[in-house]
Design goal:
- The chain is α/β, with parallel strands linked by helices.
- It has a single domain (2-240), classed as Spore Coat Polysaccharide Biosynthesis Protein SpsA, Chain A.
- Helix content is 31%, strand content 25%.
- The chain has helices spanning 37-47, 59-68, 86-94, 113-128, 188-193, 199-208, 227-240, and strands at 6-11, 31-32, 35-36, 52-57, 76-80, 101-106, 109-110, 138-144, 153-156, 162-165, 172-181, 213-217, 222-223.
- The strands form 3 sheets. Strands 1, 4, 5, 6, 8, 9, 10, 11 and 12 form a 9-stranded mixed beta sheet that branches. Strands 2-3 form a two-stranded antiparallel sheet. Strands 7-13 form a two-stranded antiparallel ribbon.
- A hairpin with a 5-residue loop joins strand 9 and strand 10 (162-165).
- Helix 3 crosses helix 6 (199-208).
- The radius of gyration is 17 Å and the shape is globular.
């Protein structure tokens, strides 16, 4: 099943808040565990058995990547584009992704290989357990809110269906790991007409349009936005490798 699945990574942001701790590098080129974030995310997907990973990076990242001689793994389909928002990055990736399911993450989401496998297995089980006419269109990893500065809160119903984004009553937030059907791209034109400006706004539009998205609980996930997040991620990876 995994060899028919494709992967996608959003890595087109500048990562300005992180640069003071990362030698002014754009976020995709910052190293964790001796490996650039971009390479780490691609590698983890490929090692799951995914045969093709589509990646979007901006022109600055691509220029610096070439200057330092960073080679991307075989199986990477690279798109270089300076997009105005994370939503537009996702929609541009949609032009490269073949019909069906795809595994998506942002470049700054740090988790272990085992946690990624668990998410994938749980997400597929949710999608496959329902009748095709009423099944889920996708699943998002969710974690308890730990004080992140700009979280995307999620409210789930008793069936783990996402019923609302932006409500902090349950203190759950997205973990920036997703399993989607390419059906989500059906609303690209409408989102652009509405001038939505972020991935979180697009996710809200999908729920408003009646797409069924499930929340999958996860643990030990770090979203790298600030210098302090980078240190936490590096310590976590070192501990997973038995180095800490």
């Amino acid at each position: 099943m995994r060899d028919s699945l494709t992967g996608a990574i959003i890595a087109a942001g500048r990562g300005d808040r992180l640069r003071s701790a990362a030698a002014a590098l754009p976020k995709p080129l910052v190293e964790v565990g001796g490996e650039a974030l971009l390479v780490r995310q691609i590698r983890m997907m490929l090692e799951m058995g995914i045969s093709r990973v589509s990646v979007i990076i901006n022109s600055e990242t691509d220029r610096l990547r070439q200057e330092i001689g960073l080679t991307l793994p075989a199986g990477t389909h690279l798109l270089v584009a300076d997009t105005p928002s994370s939503m537009e990055s996702l929609l541009r990736l949609g032009d490269l992704i073949p019909p069906g399911r795809f595994l998506l993450s942002t470049v700054d989401t740090i988790l272990s290989e085992s946690e990624l496998h668990r998410f994938f297995d749980r997400a597929c089980a949710i999608a496959d357990s329902s009748h095709p006419e009423s099944g889920f269109d996708g699943a998002l990893g969710v974690v308890p809110w730990r004080g992140d500065a700009k979280p995307l809160f999620v409210r789930l119903d008793s069936q783990s269906k996402i019923v609302e984004f932006g409500n902090d009553s349950q203190k759950l937030v997205t973990a920036s790991v997703y399993l989607f059907s390419t059906r989500i791209f059906s609303y690209a034109a409408e989102a652009r007409t509405q001038k939505l400006d972020a991935l979180r706004r697009y996710l809200g539009l999908l729920v408003d349009k009646g797409l069924k998205l499930a929340g999958v609980p996860m643990s030990d996930v770090v979203d790298i936005d600030e210098p302090s997040d980078l240190e936490i991620a590096r310590r976590m990876v070192a501990m997973q490798r038995g180095e800490g």
